[in-house]
Amino acid sequence: MGRQLIADNHSFTALMWTDSGLWFEIVYGLAVLSAVLLLLGWRTRAVSVVFMAGVLSLQNRSIFMGDGGDNVVHLAALYLVLTRCSQVWSLDARRLAREERAAGLGAAPRRDVVGPVLWTVLGVLLLVATYHSGVTGEWWLVVLLWALWAGQALWWLACRHAPGEPRTLLDVIANLTHNAALLVIMAEVCLIYATAGWYKIQGSRWQDGTALYYPLKLDYFSPWPALSDLLGSSALVVLLLTYGTVAVQVAFPFTLFNRKVKNVLLVAMMLEHAGIALLLGLPFFSLAMISADAVFLPTAFLVWLGTRVGRGRDRLFPRRRDEAVPEQRRADEEPSPRTLVG
User: Fold this and answer.
1) Do 231 and 313 have their domain in common?
2) Burial classification of residue 141, based on how many CB atoms lie within 10 Å of its CB (0-12 exposed, 13-18 middle, 19 or more buried)
3) Residue 87 belongs to a domain
4) Comparing C-alpha atoms, which of 184, 141, 145, 143 is closest to residue 10?
5) Which of 61, 77, 110, 315 could form a disulfide with 55 if both were Cys (CB 3.0 to 4.6 A apart)?
6) Are 7 and 152 found together in one domain?
7) What is the DSSP letter of 162?
8) In terms of domains, do 155 and 40 share one?
9) Does residue 318 sit within a domain?
10) Distance CA 51, CA 70 (A)
11) Same domain, 223 and 143
12) Residue 338 is inside which H or E element, if any?
């Protein structure tokens, strides 16, 4: 039945290469490991491709096992490959900052061993995927993976041996690709909310304001029965939450033209998904939607959040003075204007 399904929708899954239980455990383990590494931002360009292959393999094996959150992760896994999502708040950014500090102090650049080794291992895995693609007919994805693999080698060579104009040109292309992929992710999120909201408007239970009452009374969607009963006992609360859900989803794509209104509605939508995770027992769906909503967070808020988190980290784990950034250390050592005046 699985092979018939794959033959009909022509989707990619490495789990169809063999029926071995060990192979399933390997694919599942690699998918989990790549998700953790992508979250930490370790070798993101390579890990994002492994994460995409793992997500596609697990979800396409049986599409009837997923929900709306899995569809969002499915799409995001494809687009994250094209984004530069490790520029800040990642181990890659930390490693790059360490290399820049060493270069500023005149130290010789460290030899990158992990990158070529990881690239070689992925090349071997691609050879295996290419062999099996001849059996299952997945040439389109294999060609894409080989192109990404070759692009990774080109980027590494430019960074190491051509840091001038070739590296600048690759940076420009990477930024354009990143912005285009980010725009597509935003469009997908708007499409999800717009279609969900307009379909809800056509339902009679959403029109009379009672739609939220019914899932609260289902055992499958009631991890906290007492809390669900308390919420469902108030007709006014059910009515407001039902109409509010429709209004927020329909209005969100149009609020992008007003920054302040968009930020308020964005907070409301994240709180709504947090409520869904708590009341209906759908944490992974809610996390997937909150992560998609985070694409619209304003840059000023992210900078503020990064500053606060950095200060909290420094208080918990104070760095030694000799490990500080050279520019910051020189600024600390120079007298202030007030000192000079005094």
Assistant:
1) no
2) middle
3) yes
4) 141
5) 77
6) yes
7) -
8) yes
9) yes
10) 14
11) no
12) helix 337-341
CB 24 within 8 A of CB 65: no
Model confidence pLDDT, tens digit, residues 270-309: 999 999 999 888 899 999 999 999 999 988 888 888 888 8
Q: What is the pLDDT of residues 45-80, one digit of tens each?
A: 889 999 999 999 899 888 888 888 888 999 999 999
Domain residues for 31? 1-98+114-161
Global pTM? 0.83
How far apart CA 309 and CA 122 sit, in angstroms, is: 34
Are 157 and 36 members of one domain? Answer: yes
**C-alpha distances in Å from residue 139, one per residue of 75, 130, 134:** 20, 8, 7
Question: Total structural domains in the chain?
Answer: 3
189: in domain: no
Residues contacting 137, CB < 8 A, separation 6+: 10
The dihedral through the CA atoms of 189, 193, 198, 202 has a sign that is positive
Q: What are phi and psi of 18, to 5 degrees?
A: -155, 155
Residue with tokens 């009374």: 217
**337 and 283 in a common domain:** no
Residues contacting 276, CB < 8 A, separation 6+: 282, 285, 286
CA pseudo-torsion sign 300, 304, 307, 309: negative
